Amino acid sequence: MMEVATISRHRDLLRAIAVFVFPVAFILIPLAAFLVYSFFWTEHGALHYVLTLRNYQRFFTDPIFLPVFWRTCVLCLEVAGLSVGFGYPVAYFLAGMKGGTKHVLLMLMLVPLLMSYVIKIYSIRAILGSNGIINRALLWSGLIDEPLTFFVFNLNAVLLALTVLLIPFAVLPIFLSLERIPRSLLDASADLGASSRQTFMSVILPLSLPGTAAAFTFVFVLAIGDFLTPQMVGGQSGFTFGRIIYSQFGTAFNWSFGAALSVILAIVVIVAIVAGSRAGQGAMSKGRPT
Fold first, then answer.
1. Please, which residues have CB within 8 angstroms of residue 253's CB and are 6 or more apart in sequence?
2. Which of 168, 59, 154, 71 is nearest to 112 (CA)?
3. pLDDT, tens digit, for every residue of 186-228?
């Protein structure tokens, strides 16, 4: 019996190692390497393996980086808010449907996620650009005399492009949250004489808030780490924190400073995930029927 118990313990240990070896190897170790690199410093392209805080001091004292960081955070909060605002009615509409049509429409909504990210960005540029569909239609109708530049190569373009690209990531968590609401609660609300609006405000909305918080957090995390979309639609006026990090690794070859900026971004992401998780748990406890 003791040998069997020993073999069982060894088997459980091997399973645990097999489960955690890949996250540790491909997530924790790279993050730890970035953290260590952030305390080195680079001068004239040469990396000095001397521990220092100069990279973080540069971030907080340089007049360029901190304003771009705050502007990017505000931009991503706006993207998350717009994605949830537009995505919630879509998820509510899908959750209210019956039969196989609901799942067919859900799959059609998720089809853009299977497309190339670059192709989707170029499609958005084709719609919003100076020679895009919107400007051509407005010029043809006579409403404008020259192409509008309000939605191209600036932060407005980044905001709109990210919102369009990330709406499906907001719809899915909200849809799943709405799907989990027991039908019996809706029937009980109707039996008690509540109107559709009262049922939505008192039952559906509170119980869907955890999914809404998850959707907001999900979109914010995806948006704040994106550098390709601002690169392709932002231009010089649409510079974001992700583009700064990309430039440190790609053109400036200042890996230590880029690592420090990545650590700061990772801290923001972790804080956002923790805040979103707590907000979802709080909403769940408040919305749980008694």
1. 42, 45
2. 168
3. 888 888 888 989 999 999 999 999 999 999 999 999 999 999 9
Q: Residue 271: which residues within 8 A CB-CB, separation 6 or more?
A: none
Question: Are residues 94 and 101 in contact, defined by beta-carbon separation less than 8 angstroms?
Answer: no
CA distance 70 to 153: 20
- Nearest partner of 166 among 101, 225, 234, 236, judged by Cα: 225
- The number of CA neighbours under 13 Å toward the Cβ of 77 is 9
Cα atoms in the 13 Å half-sphere on the side-chain side of 56: 12
CA gap 87, 178 in Å, rounded: 12
- CA-closest candidate to residue 173, choices 265, 27, 279: 279
* Overall residue count recorded for the chain in this entry: 290
- Confirm if 47 and 252 have CB atoms less than 8 A apart: no
Could you tell me the two tokens for 92?
Answer: 């509510």
Task: Decide: helix, strand or coil at residue 41.
Answer: strand
Segment 229-263, tens digit of pLDDT: 999 998 888 889 999 999 999 888 899 999 999 99
* Angle ∠(134,108,75) on CA atoms, nearest 5: 50
